[in-house]
Amino acid sequence: MSDKFNDTQSPRVTAAEEKVASEGRRKFLRKGAALTGGAVLAGSAGAQAKDKITDPIEPPRVKQLGRGVVSVPYGKPSKYESHVLRRNVEWLTADTIASISFTPFQDLEGIITPNGLHFERYHSGAVDIDPKDHRMAVHGMVEKPMVFTVEDLKRMPQTSKIHFMECPANGAMEWRGVQMDSMQFTHGMLSCSEWTGVKLTTLMEYLGVSPDATWFYAEGMDGSALQRSIPLPGAKDQFGKPVPDADEIYKDIIVAYAQNGEALRPEQGYPLRLVVPGTEANLSIKYLRRIKFTDKPLVTYQETRHYTDAMPDGRIRQFTLINEANSVVTYPCPDKRLKEKGFHEIRGIAWSGRGKVKRVDVSVDGGRNWHEAELQEPVLSKCLTRFRLPWEWNGEEALVMSRVQDETGYVQPTLQQLKAKRGTNSIYHKNAIQVWKVEKNGEVKNVQVKYV
Ligand SMILES: Nc1nc2c(c(=O)[nH]1)N[C@H]1C(S)=C(S)[C@@H](COP(=O)(O)O)O[C@H]1N2
Ligand SMILES: [Mo]
Prior knowledge:
Blueprint: H1 15-36, H2 45-50, E1 99-101, E2 120-122, E3 136-140, E4 146-148, H3 150-155, E5 159-166, H4 183-187, E6 190-199, H5 200-207, E7 215-220, E8 227-231, H6 246-249, E9 254-259, E10 262-263, E11 273-275, E12 288-294, E13 309-310, E14 316-317, E15 326-331, E16 342-351, E17 357-363, E18 371-372, E19 374-375, E20 385-393, E21 398-406, H7 415-422, E22 435-438, E23 444-447
Parallel strand pairs: 3-12
Antiparallel strand pairs: 1-2, 3-4, 5-6, 6-9, 7-8, 7-12, 9-10, 9-11, 13-14, 15-16, 16-20, 17-18, 17-21, 19-20, 21-22, 22-23
Bound molecules: ligand MTE and molybdenum atom.
């Protein structure tokens, strides 16, 4: 047994070990093919994969010592992963100060977005704030108006929750048929983190918020002084109409100081930001300096000029805050083509601003047939959920797409269905099914199909 750990021997895999390993692989792949149930997808994935295994194998090995501890005191990705980067679309904005960068989902696994790859959206650039000098005022309809330091907030009862963050402009270019051949650009105004901080409801209790307060107003301390009104139960708009989902949105709100175990990054609003799970990320005010409880919306520039939906009848929808269920296939996709025929696992992400993902179906023939994908645990509320479906690609053209259903029963619409309801003047809340066309050579294109 001892020579198992003996570093002087080549790690040869014996014929017996290889037999066991390949049987395991076959079993896994067979199970995968059976899961799909569909004629298109069933195939000899196991046999195909087995042909690839070279026996015996002798992987390369390093012949000198490696780097010592703390040669990189704060770890970085391997230099061979240097292509995995946030990217921007240069023609989209006049400069990079009021702009956006996109998360490279084509290269990410699981549900957590690494902090350095969280998408960025600034109205006036990222700023560096010394937490010692930072203050957050809470005032308006409260018994005890207060000014908090970051340390004060850290002493309060804490919460940690994993939630996605999505700009409602994600996919906006698709409305008018500007199709980017890149999943990073069609869906990358999205990220998912574990956020740690104080629940808004804890602060509300502590400060004695008046029962007559039906809104609060949050403001950032960066140059744009980003301001949004956020509804509380009973919220009405400036015309007296009840605001949808006002009873739900506030419950999950976090005043966050940490992200995936470490302090927020400056790009994400260090040292404090609001996280308003399930809603358009514009509400998740970074560099948070002020919360004011009120009984009416402030009707700011950010909730009139921006972040409203122009409907086909010429009317404007306002305070449509929830990001409805959405999903996309991350492999294959335009940024990650197929390299060869045979077994592939179709993979993707699904999410809903209303709660948990219940089910994801995948089609490889433009929606004629659908196959239920496997959901990867954990499946959490207002959080990215991974899905997977085994696929035997026969080298022919394919139209690959995913469709999510959330726990409320809401089903992701096709682009045609969405356009029928919302027209083509919209910018925000494009959550339509995304179609990827796989070409015979394995390249993948972003296409819009008449019936999808
Ligand atoms: N203070 C401040 N907060 C802000 C913004 C900003 O420019 N300044 N941008 C908003 C918008 S439009 C979005 S989509 C999210 C983006 O959060 P992120 O940059 O952490 O991805 O932050 C929101 N909060
Ligand atoms: Mo945004």
